[in-house]
Design goal:
The structure holds 2 protein chains of 2 kinds.
Chain A lengths: L2 H14 L16 E3 L8 E2 L4 E3 L7 H11 L19 H4 E10 L4 H8 L4 E6 L2 E6 L4 E7 L2 E9 L2 E2 L2 H12 L5 E10 L5
Parallel strand pairs in A: 2-10
Antiparallel strand pairs in A: 1-3, 4-8, 4-10, 5-6, 7-8, 8-9
Chain B lengths: L4 H7 L24 E7 L3 H4 L3 H11 L4 E7 L3 H10 L17 E5 L6 H9 L16 E5 L15 E3 L3 H17 L4 H9 L4 E2 L4 E6 L2 E7 L37 E3 L2 E2 L9 H5 L4 E2 L2 H15 L3 E4 L10 H12 L5 E3 L10 H10 L4 E6 L3 H6 L6 H13 L4 E8 L6 H19 L11 E8 L16 H15 L5 E5 L2 H11 L5 H10 L13 H10 L4 H5 L20 H12 L26
Parallel strand pairs in B: 1-2, 1-3, 3-4, 4-5, 9-12, 12-13, 14-15, 15-16, 16-17
Antiparallel strand pairs in B: 5-6, 7-8, 10-11
Helix pairs in contact in B: 3-6, 5-17, 6-7, 9-10, 10-11, 13-14, 14-15, 17-18
The chains are: A alpha+beta, B alpha/beta.
The complex binds iron/sulfur cluster.
Chain lengths: 193, 612
């Protein structure tokens, strides 16, 4: 599912749940629902965060209960928190994210080796291809055989691209293999919240 | 074969849009322990199949019966077909991941001829023999329904039974009969015999076409007890009938991703080229209260933010000017928008336009169908140039600047003047826009002139008429393209004429075509209605191998005395009526809308069926 599909799914569920949705102004009003960040197509996740604006105050429990009765199987609201109207958006305070990567072969040693040096990849930018070192975006890695847990940068400006990291790893190992990615957590700046 | 969906699921990353193949949609119906399993199959890709209102009605209707579990499958896109074949996996239902071969009934919806090769893909991936005669007691019964069922002859050898007409009661009756017969231990042949007695069921193997030379001369009934003329099923009351219940809400955007409200079934206008206009007669309206109730409950259980009015010409609904504002008021606070897809230019008022605009401004389509009044009279399209220009002006004044004009090329009696008439009409519409003061009109005009090639269809007054040859269609397309040059704001779009010819062959074809269909499939034909998949060479080779003269079916003017491949099917409107209408057409005489007075299309047998 694309990010847009997920957004639409969430909006429809809110409508079904009969929540007092707030709409944007303008020519084509749409519900104010915005995910902290998009999830790459094909990834799974057990932790996504979303800002929602309602037209009327309701309690957190009511929101959770109503949403969970309206979401399709596989989707569930775990937590909700009321914030001030002028609170910063989730996207603005997001710092990092954690991922579980499961590969079809042992990648433990190769991953450690990869991380011992700069990881230079070519990125497509507006002004053509550019070489960048993505090593600083990798904050922590915990590798066991074919499974790795990665913490990497993720903020409003961008973040660690798992595809690029795995691409470099494949290059290093000189072979192709399959892998799945699951986002397990998004970390936010919590001071002054 | 034991099939483990979990194993397949791991591979789905390889195919485009995996969500097509995993089910799990909101409101999905999974039933444990039903006695009969009915697979509702759509021989095209998921996004199109999921948009089909009829399938949604049947899904709800069949599942409303305790003993029946109705599950779905769609044609796998070519990448998925490859994956399934490579791994030796069967095609399966989206509800319980059951291989289709394990169902009691496989029911295909046939909406257009160009999906026929996909039927074969779906059967082959289910290890079910293509031909009815090759299936054994263990195989599912393979049935079909939908508009193509009125001439199912080109695929008649595939189907054990064909359901003709309105499906909601019929499909349940068929399923219940199969269940009852199976429970008493009936053999396949006995089941078919029992089915043939249901009004609306046609069992092709009980009828045998006889040819002399290349011509069909009669259709013999080979089973004494089968009806002389299988007839279509008519649902009498839409208000008491089941509708779509709690419809599925897909994860993927689908072609019609909104709530469809069916205001009525049937059409009274009698456009002579339009098959839907005749085969869905008589007209039956839903009460406004029923529609409003359905709208409310459908929005509540789906969370959709768009409603469309879905009928052959929604503007003809007797309460259209009441229901449009009512719907807008009802859902305004929830920001649910309303769209009216099949608008008739003469039944639409400016007030309504303004209201629709207050919600959402989608493109507007007008369908004059032909370029001159003479030809519009021939096809009985009761629309005048003044109607069109006035409606266009109203739309422009209400702020629209994107309009589509839809025409057909190759209509009976058409001359080059009629083609040039299309360009004239487009020019006048364009002028209408640019003659408005700059501050009153929208930014730039986008006027799309869209043409398709006329395909003569069974059960229309033009069922005997010839389709233009490919060269002639292409010549006319180019003539129009030239004539449209220089008109401000115009874009021209037209369809590949080879596909229309194939459609014409199958629309009015007979049983001999089935062999060619299978041959073309073997040669790789799939998704023939998709330009990027259409394999012309496969079809040319298949027709040559099977000795099929395509001109005979598509480009020949037939005599009204001829035995037509569908002569043994009773679609309620009589052949005499079609003959009379054809005569009037060729004389350029129009026939009024039958809301103004019955034209007697049903003949004596069904005279009391129509309540207008
Ligand atoms: S029976 Fe008469 S009113 Fe009814 S559809 Fe036919 S022509 Fe129209």
């Amino acid at each position: 599912m694309s990010h847009l599909d997920v957004q639409r799914l969430f909006q429809r569920a809110m409508h079904r749940a009969n929540l007092p949705m707030a709409y944007s102004q303008g020519f084509n009003p749409h519900p104010i629902v915005s995910f902290a960040t998009a999830l790459a197509v094909g990834y799974t996740s057990i932790s996504e965060w979303v800002d929602v604006k309602l037209a009327k105050d309701i309690t957190e429990t009511e929101f959770i209960e109503k949403m969970n009765s309206a979401l399709p199987a596989g989707f569930c609201v775990l937590k909700a928190k009321i914030v001030e109207n002028n609170a910063k958006s989730l996207t603005a305070i997001m710092k990092a994210a954690e991922y579980d990567v499961t590969a079809s072969c042992d990648i433990e040693d190769a991953m450690h080796e990869l991380l011992s040096d700069d990881i230079v990849v070519t990125k497509k930018t507006k002004s053509g291809m550019k070489e960048v070192n993505i090593r600083p975006d990798v904050y922590a890695v915990d590798a066991h055989g074919s499974s790795i847990h990665i913490t990497g940068r993720l903020d409003a400006a961008g973040g660690l691209n798992i595809e690029l990291l795995m691409g470099s790893l494949k290059e290093k190992m000189g072979g192709d293999f399959g892998y799945t990615v699951r986002r397990t957590n998004i970390i936010f700046e919590t001071e002054g919240k | 074969m034991k099939f483990d969906f979990k194993e397949l699921e791991k591979q789905l990353g390889r195919v485009e849009k995996p969500a097509r193949y995993v089910g799990n949609e909101f409101n999905i119906i999974r039933k444990e322990g039903a006695k009969l399993k009915f697979a509702l199959l759509f021989p095209d890709v998921y996004e199109i199949g999921m948009s089909h209102l009829g399938s949604r009605i049947l899904y709800n209707a069949l599942n409303s019966v305790e003993d029946i579990a109705c599950e779905r499958a769609y044609a796998p896109w070519v990448d998925m077909e490859t994956l399934l074949r490579e791994k030796g996996y069967p095609l399966y239902s989206l509800e319980t991941y059951t291989p289709l071969g394990e169902f009691d009934i496989l029911g295909f919806s046939l909406l257009y001829e160009m999906c026929y090769t996909n039927i074969l893909t779906m059967l082959e991936l289910s290890s079910v023999p293509f031909l009815s005669k090759d299936r054994g007691e263990e195989d599912p019964l393979v049935v079909c329904g939908g508009p193509c069922a009125c001439n199912s002859e080109p695929v008649a050898d595939i189907f054990d039974a064909v359901m003709i007409g309105d499906g909601e009661e019929l499909a349940i009756e068929v399923a219940n009969t199969v269940l009852k017969e199976k429970e008493r231990g009936a053999k396949r042949h006995e089941i078919l015999l029992a089915l043939s007695k249901i009004e609306g069921v046609y069992v092709p193997s009980f009828y045998n076409p006889v040819y002399e030379g290349y011509d069909l001369v009669r259709i013999e009934k080979t089973q004494k007890e089968a009806p002389e003329k299988p007839s279509k099923r008519i649902l009498k009351n839409l208000d008491t009938a089941t509708y779509i219940g709690k419809p599925l809400v897909p994860f993927l955007p689908i072609t019609h991703d909104r709530i469809a409200l069916e205001l009525f079934r049937g059409c009274t206008r009698g456009c002579r080229f339009c098959q839907a206009g005749f085969i869905y007669r008589p007209i039956r309206e839903r009460k406004m209260d029923t529609v409003m109730e359905q709208a409310r409950s459908l929005i509540n259980c789906t969370g959709y933010d768009e409603i469309s009015l879905f009928s052959l010409s929604s503007g003809d609904y007797s309460k259209i000017h009441e229901i449009v504002p009512k719907l807008i008021d009802e859902f305004n606070d929830e920001h649910v928008s309303l769209s009216l897809p099949s608008l008739r230019i003469d039944s639409f008022l400016k007030d309504d336009l303004e209201k629709i605009q207050s919600v959402r401004k989608t493109g507007l389509t007008f369908a004059p169908e032909a370029g001159t009044q003479r030809l519009r009279d021939v096809i009985n399209k009761g629309v005048t140039e003044e109607d069109l220009l006035r409606s266009a002006k109203d739309a422009f004044e209400a702020g629209w600047n994107s309009v589509k004009l839809y025409f057909m090329i190759g209509l009976p009696t058409e001359t080059d003047d009629d083609i040039l008439g299309i360009a004239d009409l487009a020019r006048k519409v364009s002028r209408e826009f640019y003659s408005m003061p700059k501050d009153k009109r929208g930014k730039g005009l986008r006027l799309v002139v869209s043409t398709s090639s006329f395909v003569p269809k069974p059960f229309t007054p033009f069922q005997w008429e010839a389709q233009d040859s490919l060269d002639e269609i292409r010549r006319k397309q180019m003539l129009l393209k030239d004539a449209l040059k220089g008109i401000r704001g115009v874009e021209f779009s037209y369809h590949e004429s080879t596909i229309s010819k194939l459609e014409a062959v199958f629309a009015r074809g007979d049983r001999r075509l089935c062999a060619a269909l299978i041959e073309a499939y073997r040669l790789g034909a799939r998704f023939d209605s998709w330009d990027e998949h259409f394999k012309e060479e496969a079809w040319i080779e298949a027709f040559a191998k099977c000795g099929i003269d395509t001109e005979y079916f598509a480009n020949r003017k037939r005599s009204t005395e001829e035995v037509l491949p569908w002569s043994h099917i009773d679609m309620t409107v009589t052949e005499e009526y079609f003959k009379k209408e054809l005569e009037r057409a060729l004389e350029g005489k129009t026939t009024p809308d039958c809301r103004k007075g019955c034209n007697g299309c049903f003949g004596k047998k069904y005279a009391d069926y129509c309540k207008i």
